[in-house]
Design brief:
heterodimer; A: 381 residues; alpha/beta; 7-stranded mixed β-sheet; 6-stranded parallel β-sheet; 12 helices; B: 136 residues; mainly alpha; 3 helices
């Protein structure tokens, strides 16, 4: 099959690779239809995630058609169209029983941090991802969601990660009616978080980014006020001033470990890589949020320790909530929102590329060229 | 700050529709632990074969695991060493990141393995031609 292959930082190619095979009785093999490039794929692309091996195929957001089923699979048949949550979860372990699918202990032998995740390095189990013609999907009776006939396929695709992660980010903020919410990062997840904040009762949503096109997108798609970080070098006083001097009630970090905005952190963490990325967006969130407020983190950070102002958080009495989205838990409610037009995920997709042009898609997405918000690869274009 | 004057609730459909805690899927609703309806096992069947590298202290492989890109070469040795270090030690992750760089180098060298014999053949050819020319 043809598949995206990682060959080192800033270098991916599309090459021939052996087709995936059934390795467990509850596996299915999907012929991939659409696979999105996630902002967190860029952390792999830039070489920030430990145990990212040459030859790996990325892609944890995908839809596909079942072409082969394992002997135990009951709920899926050849020809079914499915959307696959990025967490690989068994449905019966301690964590899955509690709806914490992102912590499933049955799919990641590499460490105790998180469940297995498709195409996200051996740190999350060593599974190849969906930026390919075919992909192996374990626990097929638990994870995949059959795509209803009335649902647009790209809406379904956005339910595999972007919308659940954004919604969970807002929900973890414990937003109460009337709250002011600041969202750092206007990538797809940040935009989804901003829009979800309204659904949860926010009275104001303020989105921050340094890319003008994304700020305009946040205004248009998420109804957010915006702060342009290319002009405002320190957003903390700006956010305080905008919220009566106290700071937002909730700050959401939808940026993660490659934040721009601090020359020192950029040099040490992103260029020299002597620190695990730059956590400046998280630092801003902690400093900006009001005392007793909540910081919700869905931006991805790697396992190595980061410099985070935990003393500020302690003294301000903050609540910090974070985690990989428990996608399956959110699907029923988010499906209602999508159908009602309250979360129109497919509108986030700005660019589509044939799988063969995936390296170009990575470049466009990485550089945020041409107003790019979300790239989708078409496996059979 | 740019204020686009979006109107009430940013012009977004469904403002505060999920304001009540009982409709929020994740928190703070208390959830009784229960298996997922799709799961038809108490514990999933074990995937055959051995997990390629497992964390220290894991008694048996997880029921499913990835089999892509087995660790090999010098980077594989470093990765095996890293997996013996507990996850809460920074050294584990530093070793893994170092292994990633070695992995890239190994593959680039492997892709360029033909350069040495090709260069040797060229040098030999040049020497033979140069010698023939000088004898004239």
């Amino acid at each position: 099959m043809r598949a995206l292959v990682y060959e080192g930082p800033w270098r991916v190619r599309v090459r021939d690779k052996p087709d995936p095979a059934i390795e467990h009785p509850d596996d299915v093999i999907l012929a991939v239809r659409r696979a999105a490039i996630c902002g967190s794929d860029l952390h792999l692309y830039h070489g920030f995630v430990p145990d990212t091996r040459v030859g790996a195929t990325f892609g944890h957001e995908f839809t596909g058609e079942v072409v082969e089923t394992g002997a135990s699979v009951r709920s899926l048949r050849r020809g079914d169209r499915v959307a696959v949550p990025f967490n690989i979860s068994c449905g019966t372990c301690f964590f899955c029983r509690r709806g914490l699918f992102g912590g499933c202990e049955s799919s990641n032998p590499s460490n105790g941090l998180a469940s297995g995740i498709y195409g996200y390095s051996h740190t999350t189990g060593g599974y190849d991802g969906g930026q390919a013609e075919y992909v192996r999907v374990p626990f097929a009776d638990v994870g995949p969601m059959k795509i209803p006939d009335d649902l647009d396929e790209e809406d379904a695709l956005m339910l595999t990660d972007v919308l659940p992660t954004g919604y969970q980010a807002a929900e973890m903020g414990g937003i109460a009616e009337g709250d002011a919410v600041a969202v750092f990062g206007c990538g797809p997840v940040g935009l989804a978080a901003a829009r979800a904040a309204w659904l949860l009762g926010a009275a104001r949503v303020i989105a921050l980014d340094r890319v003008a096109a994304r700020l305009r997108f946040a205004e248009r798609w998420a109804g957010a006020e915006t702060i342009d970080l290319s002009r405002v070098k320190d957003p903390v006083p700006e956010l305080r001033e905008a919220t009566g001097g106290r700071g937002p009630d909730v700050c959401i970090d939808a940026v993660g470990l490659e934040a721009s905005g601090s020359a020192v952190w950029t040099l040490l963490g992103r260029k020299l890589k002597v620190a695990p990325g730059s956590a400046i967006a998280l630092a801003w969130a902690i400093h900006a949020v009001r005392k007793g407020g909540t910081v919700s983190i869905v931006g991805v950070y790697g396992p190595p320790a980061n410099l985070v102002p935990i003393g500020v958080a302690m003294n301000k009495g903050l609540t910090l909530r974070m985690g990989q989205a428990n996608v399956k838990r959110y699907l029923p409610r988010l499906l209602e929102h999508v159908r009602a037009g309250r979360l129109r995920g497919r509108e986030l997709v700005t660019h589509r590329f044939a799988l063969e042009h995936a390296p170009q898609a990575y470049e466009v997405f990485d550089r945020k060229e041409d107003g790019c918000v979300k790239c989708v690869l078409l496996a059979r274009a | 700050m740019d204020r686009p004057d979006p109107g009430a609730s940013g012009g977004i459909r469904g403002p505060a529709v999920d304001a009540a805690p009982e409709v929020r899927p994740g928190v703070p609703r208390v959830r009784r632990p229960a298996p997922d309806p799709g799961a038809h096992w108490q514990r999933p069947e074990q995937q055959r074969g051995a997990a390629l590298l497992s964390r220290a202290g894991l008694r048996e492989a997880t029921p499913v695991f990835g089999t892509a890109q087995p660790a090999c070469g010098l980077s594989g040795l470093v990765r095996r060493a890293a997996y013996r270090v507990p996850e809460h030690r920074t050294g584990r992750w530093a070793l893994l990141l170092a292994a990633d760089r070695i992995d890239v180098l190994e593959h680039r060298l492997a892709r360029g393995w033909w350069i040495l014999p090709a260069a040797a053949a060229l040098a030999l050819g040049y020497a033979v031609v140069a010698r023939a020319v000088s004898r004239r």
